[in-house]
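Check out a protein:
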Amino acid sequence: MRVYNKPAPLKRNKNHPPSASYDEGLRERLMDEKFAQKYLELAMEESEKVFLAALRNYIAARNVKIVSLAKNANISRDTLYKALTPEGNPRWSTIMSIMHGLGLKLTPSYIGR
Protein backbone atom coordinates (compact mmCIF):
# COMPACT_ATOMS: atom_id res chain seq x y z
CA MET A 1 0.00 0.00 0.00
CA ARG A 2 1.30 3.40 -0.99
CA VAL A 3 1.35 6.26 1.42
CA TYR A 4 1.13 9.73 -0.04
CA ASN A 5 2.38 12.75 1.77
CA LYS A 6 0.16 15.78 1.90
CA PRO A 7 1.36 18.53 -0.40
CA ALA A 8 2.88 21.52 1.32
CA PRO A 9 0.46 24.42 1.68
CA LEU A 10 0.86 27.17 -0.90
CA LYS A 11 2.61 30.25 0.35
CA ARG A 12 0.96 33.51 -0.55
CA ASN A 13 3.11 36.21 -2.00
CA LYS A 14 2.34 39.32 0.04
CA ASN A 15 3.14 41.56 -2.94
CA HIS A 16 0.47 40.00 -5.20
CA PRO A 17 -3.18 39.56 -4.28
CA PRO A 18 -4.72 36.16 -4.98
CA SER A 19 -5.99 35.84 -8.54
CA ALA A 20 -9.70 35.63 -9.26
CA SER A 21 -11.12 32.19 -9.77
CA TYR A 22 -11.85 30.96 -13.28
CA ASP A 23 -15.61 31.28 -12.69
CA GLU A 24 -15.29 34.85 -11.47
CA GLY A 25 -13.13 35.78 -14.43
CA LEU A 26 -15.50 34.14 -16.87
CA ARG A 27 -18.51 35.91 -15.34
CA GLU A 28 -16.69 39.20 -15.70
CA ARG A 29 -15.76 38.57 -19.33
CA LEU A 30 -19.29 37.42 -20.20
CA MET A 31 -20.51 40.93 -19.40
CA ASP A 32 -18.73 42.05 -22.59
CA GLU A 33 -21.13 41.58 -25.53
CA LYS A 34 -18.47 40.63 -28.09
CA PHE A 35 -16.82 38.12 -25.78
CA ALA A 36 -20.17 36.59 -24.84
CA GLN A 37 -21.14 36.26 -28.51
CA LYS A 38 -17.91 34.50 -29.44
CA TYR A 39 -18.07 32.32 -26.31
CA LEU A 40 -21.56 31.10 -27.21
CA GLU A 41 -20.63 30.63 -30.89
CA LEU A 42 -17.62 28.48 -30.05
CA ALA A 43 -19.60 26.47 -27.50
CA MET A 44 -22.30 25.82 -30.10
CA GLU A 45 -19.70 24.52 -32.55
CA GLU A 46 -18.41 22.10 -29.92
CA SER A 47 -21.56 20.19 -28.91
CA GLU A 48 -25.06 20.59 -27.54
CA LYS A 49 -23.91 19.81 -23.98
CA VAL A 50 -21.09 22.37 -24.17
CA PHE A 51 -23.50 24.95 -25.59
CA LEU A 52 -26.02 24.37 -22.81
CA ALA A 53 -23.25 24.71 -20.21
CA ALA A 54 -22.16 27.97 -21.86
CA LEU A 55 -25.75 29.18 -21.86
CA ARG A 56 -25.99 28.42 -18.13
CA ASN A 57 -22.77 30.37 -17.55
CA TYR A 58 -24.12 33.28 -19.60
CA ILE A 59 -27.39 33.33 -17.64
CA ALA A 60 -25.52 33.21 -14.31
CA ALA A 61 -23.04 35.92 -15.34
CA ARG A 62 -25.83 38.22 -16.46
CA ASN A 63 -27.74 37.54 -13.23
CA VAL A 64 -30.83 36.65 -15.24
CA LYS A 65 -33.77 35.68 -13.05
CA ILE A 66 -35.30 32.35 -14.09
CA VAL A 67 -38.85 33.63 -13.57
CA SER A 68 -38.22 36.61 -15.87
CA LEU A 69 -36.48 34.48 -18.46
CA ALA A 70 -39.31 31.94 -18.49
CA LYS A 71 -41.80 34.75 -19.00
CA ASN A 72 -39.74 36.38 -21.77
CA ALA A 73 -39.16 33.01 -23.44
CA ASN A 74 -42.86 32.14 -23.14
CA ILE A 75 -42.11 28.76 -21.54
CA SER A 76 -42.87 27.38 -18.12
CA ARG A 77 -40.36 27.75 -15.32
CA ASP A 78 -40.21 23.96 -14.94
CA THR A 79 -39.39 23.53 -18.63
CA LEU A 80 -36.66 26.13 -18.33
CA TYR A 81 -35.13 24.51 -15.25
CA LYS A 82 -35.17 21.08 -16.91
CA ALA A 83 -33.68 22.43 -20.12
CA LEU A 84 -30.80 24.08 -18.28
CA THR A 85 -29.79 21.17 -16.07
CA PRO A 86 -26.61 19.32 -17.07
CA GLU A 87 -28.82 16.29 -17.74
CA GLY A 88 -31.27 18.37 -19.78
CA ASN A 89 -32.08 17.43 -23.34
CA PRO A 90 -34.19 20.36 -24.53
CA ARG A 91 -36.06 20.44 -27.80
CA TRP A 92 -34.88 22.81 -30.52
CA SER A 93 -37.95 24.99 -29.95
CA THR A 94 -37.06 25.31 -26.25
CA ILE A 95 -33.50 26.40 -27.06
CA MET A 96 -34.82 28.95 -29.54
CA SER A 97 -37.31 30.24 -26.96
CA ILE A 98 -34.55 30.61 -24.36
CA MET A 99 -32.34 32.43 -26.84
CA HIS A 100 -35.21 34.76 -27.74
CA GLY A 101 -35.94 35.33 -24.05
CA LEU A 102 -32.31 36.37 -23.55
CA GLY A 103 -32.45 38.73 -26.52
CA LEU A 104 -30.11 36.52 -28.56
CA LYS A 105 -30.47 34.97 -31.99
CA LEU A 106 -28.75 32.21 -33.88
CA THR A 107 -27.14 33.23 -37.12
CA PRO A 108 -26.07 30.55 -39.59
CA SER A 109 -22.71 30.99 -41.25
CA TYR A 110 -21.18 29.16 -44.18
CA ILE A 111 -18.41 26.73 -43.23
CA GLY A 112 -17.30 25.94 -46.78
CA ARG A 113 -17.75 22.27 -47.46
Summary: The mean pLDDT is 85. DSSP finds six helices and no strands in the chain. The radius of gyration is 19 Å.
